[in-house]
Design goal:
Layout lengths: L2 H20 L3 H15 L5 H6 L3 H19 L2 H11 L8 H14 L4 H18 L4 H15 L6 H12 L6 H22 L2 H7 L8 H6 L18 H20 L3 H15 L1 H8 L4 H19 L2 H10 L4 H16 L4 H17 L5 H13 L8 H9 L2 H31 L3
Length: 430
């Protein structure tokens, strides 16, 4: 490697190292490093550096997180969760799957994965404790569901991947990516279900006692770990309108390829104009931290692209054995780093390096993108990730050590299993 490539990699290591060491937003550190290296070493103008900030991605993240914030503030999320929970009707084996589907719906509607996990994991683990289900199973069902919905056309994950690939000249078709990643996470959750007590749940059948109207009115109970596990569901006009707008976004984005960010922002503004009180609460839930994170990392990568560093590194990557070996290497890196750091940041960093593989036709665009999405997100079950930490924190004290060990084994195994299986199923055949 030449000196510019080494300087670029050192800068990236500094961004990750400083942000993790001092618990700083990685995007803020990346913006500073982009300025220092861009002006001081690569001889770029400040205007050139600023042009690298992803304006379209900013609108997308702003729009979808603002809209989800309104959906949460006006009770639509509670209505969806409450309606789904009532569908259980005593079927204990359905509980993990209810939370899988809920997580997929909420994340697929544009929620940040961290927000989905924060909403569902405490409720799900209260159910697990109440009805003697493995907390690891219910927690993984939420995380797998989050990843299953994480690549819908209006999701945050997909829009990050789509935007960064688009900057490299690669056009993605959202429908097959969503379908294949959903099926992959569904299969992953099936494996978790049968490995973590699903057969016993099926044998138990209808053993859940219905929650009485009196208990439902009382809200949180000691037996539910202090969390209200069921609520009376009352849909209002604003809830129905919110769901209709979310459905409309998906339809317009897929049918007419309209911009998801502006569609979501338009829907959010409509709801805000009709119900101003919801808007005030929703602004607090906009993913400003994620916007800064992604904006900073993308800007840093843009500086490296302007200096020609990315092209040089990408050329080096494509010369690793064969294109298939290079693809597998990138998948392993994605899984390893995402287990300990931000999955969003990994997409931004790795996609420009992977783009030459698909641009040259050496590997299938669809196959590699699906494999990358699976490899980078399946490891979110690591106990060192936000979702994994939430599972540990919400597990009953007497089960916490056992759950941590189980989550550690599952998460670390995904670092190897997810990249290899994704490569074998989606990259190698193409």
């Amino acid at each position: 490697m030449n000196t510019p490539e080494l300087i670029a990699i050192a800068g990236l290591v500094a961004v990750f190292g400083i942000s993790m060491w001092r618990s700083l937003n990685m995007g803020a550190v990346a913006l500073v490093v982009a300025f220092v290296l861009g002006v001081g070493y690569f001889d770029l103008d400040v205007a050139d550096i600023a042009e690298g900030f992803p304006g379209s991605l900013f609108v997308t993240l702003l729009g979808v997180t603002y809209l989800f914030g309104i959906a949460r503030a006006n009770g639509t999320v509670d209505c969806i969760v409450g309606s789904a929970v009532r569908l259980v009707k005593g079927r204990v084996a359905l509980i993990p799957w209810i939370f899988f589907v809920l997580a997929a719906i909420i994340t697929g509607a544009g929620a940040l994965s961290a927000a989905t996990n924060a909403i569902l994991i405490p409720v799900g683990l209260a159910f697990a404790y109440r009805y003697k289900i493995s907390p690891l199973l219910v927690g993984l069902s939420v995380l797998n569901g989050t990843n299953a919905g994480g690549f819908s056309p209006i999701s945050v994950y997909f829009n990050i991947v789509d935007d960064v690939f688009g900057q490299s000249g690669v056009t993605l078709d959202p429908a097959p990516i969503f379908l294949l990643t959903f099926v992959a996470n569904l299969v992953l959750n099936l494996a978790a279900f049968f490995l973590l007590g699903g057969r016993e749940l099926l044998r138990r059948g209808r053993q859940i006692a219905e929650i009485s109207d009196e208990e439902r009115d009382l809200g949180p109970t000691p037996s539910s770990g202090g969390t209200a596990v069921a609520t009376a569901v009352k849909w209002t006009t604003r809830n129905v309108l919110t769901v209709a707008l979310l459905t409309g976004i998906v339809f317009l984005a897929l049918t007419f390829t309209l911009d998801v960010g502006f569609l979501a922002l338009t829907s959010a503004v409509i709801l805000a104009a009709l119900y101003p009180s919801d808007s005030k609460k929703a602004v607090e839930q906009i993913g400003w931290g994620v916007i800064l994170l992604i904006g900073g990392i993308v800007t840093y990568i843009s500086v490296l692209q302007s200096a020609g560093v990315i092209d040089s590194i990408a050329t080096s990557v494509t010369t690793i054995g064969s294109p298939l070996v290079a693809a597998l290497t990138i998948l392993f890196v994605a899984g390893l780093v995402s287990a300990f750091a931000s999955t969003n940041a990994m997409f931004v960093v790795l996609v420009p390096l992977a783009a030459p593989l698909v641009l040259t036709g050496n590997v299938s665009t669809l196959g590699f993108v699906v494999a990358l999405c699976i490899a980078a997100s399946a490891v979110d079950s690591s106990p060192f990730s936000t979702g994994g930490a939430l599972i540990i924190a919400n597990t009953e004290e007497e089960l916490r050590d056992k759950t941590f060990r189980g989550l550690l084994i599952w998460g670390m195994s995904m670092i190897v299993i997810a990249p290899v299986m994704a490569w074998l199923l989606f990259v190698l055949p193409t």
